[in-house]
Amino acid sequence: xxxxxxxxxxxxxxxxxxxxxxxxxxxxxxxxxxxxxxxxxxxxxxxxxxxxxxxxxxxxxxxxxxxxxxxxxxxxxxxxxxxxxxxxxxxxxxxxxxxxxxxxxxxxxxxxxxxxxxxxxxxxxxxxxxxxxxxxxxxxxxxxxxxxxxxxxxxxxxxxxxxxxxxxxxxxxxxxxxxxxxxxxxxxxxxxxxxxxxxxxxxxxxxxxxxxxxxxxxxxxxxxxxxxxxxxxxxxxxxxxxxxxxxxxxxxxxxxxxxxxxxxxxxxxxxxxxxxxxxxxxxxxxxxxxxxxxxxxxxxxxxxxxxxxxxxxxxxxxxxxxxxxxxxxxxxxxxxxxxxxxxxxxxxxxxxxxxxxxxxxxxxxxxxxxxxxxxxxxxxxxxxxxxxxxxxxxxxxxxxxxxxxxxxxxxxxxxxxxxxxxxx
Length: 424
Fold this sequence. Notes:
The protein has helices spanning about 5-10, 195-200, and strands at about 45, 55-60, 65, 70-75, 80-85, 95, 100-110, 115-120, 130-140, 145, 150-155, 165-170, 190-195, 210-215, 220-225, 230-235, 245-255, 260-270, 270-275, 280-285, 290-300, 305-315, 320-335, 335-345, 355-360, 365, 375-380, 385-390, 395, 400, 410-415, 420-424. By secondary structure, the chain is mainly beta. It has three domains: about 5-15 and about 205-335, Immunoglobulin-like (Sandwich), CATH 2.60.40.3880; about 35-200, Distorted Sandwich (Glucose Permease (Domain IIA)), CATH 2.70.70; about 335-424, Immunoglobulin-like (Sandwich), CATH 2.60.40. Strands 1, 2, 5, 6, 7, 8, 9, 10, 11, 12 and 13 form an eleven-stranded mixed sheet that branches. Strands 15, 17, 18, 19, 20, 22 and 23 form a seven-stranded mixed sheet that branches. A five-stranded antiparallel sheet has the order 27-24-32-31-29, with no helix packed on it. A hairpin with a 3-residue loop joins strand 7 and strand 8. The protein is elongated, with a radius of gyration of 32 Å. The protein starts with a helix and ends with a strand.
């Protein structure tokens, strides 16, 4: 059993940690929102820095009309915001991100728009809003659920109708163009709202990161039997660090001996899998995701397990990261049976080196220790045949059928050319 255990352990933990888990987000509410550009990627926001190539600036604001050089003409009809980076086509092909959890309800080319994506979001109170992303070059997502911070397309030029930029709108359910692109301009703005003001009102002021790990929906330590199911879930609230590059760790300290006392999750040629060691799982931007299940198994070997979900953020000193973590301890007990006993000489001295082979519901072998003792644990219910042997000894009573816990008075008569020994 001991030799087989590591392979069994790895098999039990051969889950796939999927960060691209759209199917798990059906119907999820959007509690926080980010900007479609500037919150992620290499460039930030600089709304008033016209012409800057190092960040995204606002060419045309909500309900403002501008000329081709982003100079204000009037204040009345523009139903969204136009975001640029640099000049000309500097931002052409830049990635656009979903502002929050939601469902894509429109994704296709529209006359005068180029490609358009509309995502419908459900707020915490059950009401709905839409975010519209216009003039896209490409659409990497065209249907289904998306999560906050997920890439959905790239900045385009409306199929040559306009210079490259992102036209971005936020609509309420009373919008007359609900679910449709519309015209982008109207003297009636009922149903639209200022996109930046809306997003800013949902921006988290929390300057901490909250990784959370649960076992069987419990935040505290739990004790289970080896036959019980174990469900492990994780979730993350990035707080004010959304979009920040960080080190992600998902590890477990096991009851195994070194080097199998630690396992970590890593993506390699085998895909996502658990590997021996206490190393980093992933390095990348922080994003918000609700609770997801990353393990559902039973039959864990007995012992103490501690699972860790850790996030490390650079502080400017590579040797001193700001660490946020959660952990959970799991004690696994066994409901199996045991068979134990001793092999002794007639004078009561223990005989070491006797090989005892067990066959039945479980098949394994062990060798008596220096005191002649042996022990089989974690056995299933059933009947077994136990056969002792030692080189130079002749077995006189070969096998005995037994049930677990019935071995305390089991007798084996072994003989050599010197004396008879007993297995008790």
